[in-house]
Amino acid sequence: MLLVLCVDLDDDLGRKTGFSTPVIGREPVEEAAVALATADPEDSDVNVIFQGLSIYDDLAGRDESVEVAVVTGTEGSDVEANRQVGREVDTVLANIATAEDVTALVITDGAQDESVIPVIRSRVPIDGVRRVVVRQAQNLESMYYTIKQVLDDPETRGTVLIPLGILLLIYPLALIGSAMEWPGFVLGTTSALLGLYLISRGLGLGDRLDVAVERARRSLYAGRTTLLAYVVAATLFVLGGVSGMNTLEQTEAVHGDLEIPTMLAALVYGSIQWLAAAGVTTSLGQITDEYIAGNLEWRYLNAPFYVVSIAIVLHAVSAFFLGLVGISYLAAALTVGTLLGIVSTLAFAVLESWYVDGESGGDGETDAEATRVDRAD
């Protein structure tokens, strides 16, 4: 018996129509093809399934022993998709009622789906592979439509547009390293903008930006304090960067050329208080939202104390490298920062245990009272 096996590696059939796979038999496969064509007429897997039906009808008309089936993988991981196809092929073979040896004719729509052929061959001998290619009119409209489809296809964006965008960025990056005249500057800027556009399309940054804006809008209307906290924290972060650069410039003015550890110490010393304020702001905003949602746990309250502890340690270390404090101050700051983190962890752990034990103790007392009542009865 020849098994005409239509392969849909990314499970367009299941995701777009809700059909349970594998689909076995002439009538069920035709229903699946019509459903997929109705849901998405542009999907190439529609042509794969109809090609399988055409081959089935041709062989059945010549009184050959033949069966048709559709197997699918999963969207995302190629490895998991191949494994899923293998499991569905096993199901198809188990449901074919025949005493004859079964061989397969695999129908795909491209090289990506053909990567599953070794998995199929390990389960059933393969007589051939048929790749379905849709013929299109060779005119300007068809070319425009093809380019539009390429830009909208996530798989193509990742494999074609990102390398092309990086290639276009090479030239402007080379121009930055040398003195440029205006013609070169214009050409380099144009190429850079085009490269950034292609990379953004390839990574789908537009869709991600839309999602981020929608989340921010929902947070704003829902009254979530996290959104306000993030805005304030971002402002504090920028102020911290400016303060750190000012401190670095003042240190260079006093000591001249600095080594890398001293430069880092100056940046940290000038910015750590602002960065700590940003961390405390975001943690308090998150704690407030968790409390309003009823999901607050005691250990969440450790976050602002941890931020303050880390800030104390970094402030003391950077000040020590700059020669502003001595070893005694550094040791005291390290001790205070460590103890603050440990004490906050222990305190909230004890409070959480007391709170949980108090609730369970109340239940236990109720059970004991119920037991005494039963005995009295």
Automatic annotation (TrEMBL):
<keyword id="KW-1133">Transmembrane helix</keyword>
<protein>
    <recommendedName>
        <fullName>DUF373 family protein</fullName>
    </recommendedName>
</protein>
<feature type="transmembrane region" description="Helical">
    <location>
        <begin position="221"/>
        <end position="242"/>
    </location>
</feature>
<feature type="region of interest" description="Disordered">
    <location>
        <begin position="358"/>
        <end position="377"/>
    </location>
</feature>
<feature type="transmembrane region" description="Helical">
    <location>
        <begin position="182"/>
        <end position="200"/>
    </location>
</feature>
<feature type="transmembrane region" description="Helical">
    <location>
        <begin position="330"/>
        <end position="351"/>
    </location>
</feature>
<feature type="transmembrane region" description="Helical">
    <location>
        <begin position="262"/>
        <end position="284"/>
    </location>
</feature>
<keyword id="KW-0472">Membrane</keyword>
<dbReference type="Pfam" id="PF04123">
    <property type="entry name" value="DUF373"/>
</dbReference>
<feature type="transmembrane region" description="Helical">
    <location>
        <begin position="305"/>
        <end position="324"/>
    </location>
</feature>
<feature type="transmembrane region" description="Helical">
    <location>
        <begin position="158"/>
        <end position="176"/>
    </location>
</feature>
<keyword id="KW-0812">Transmembrane</keyword>
<dbReference type="InterPro" id="IPR007254">
    <property type="entry name" value="DUF373"/>
</dbReference>
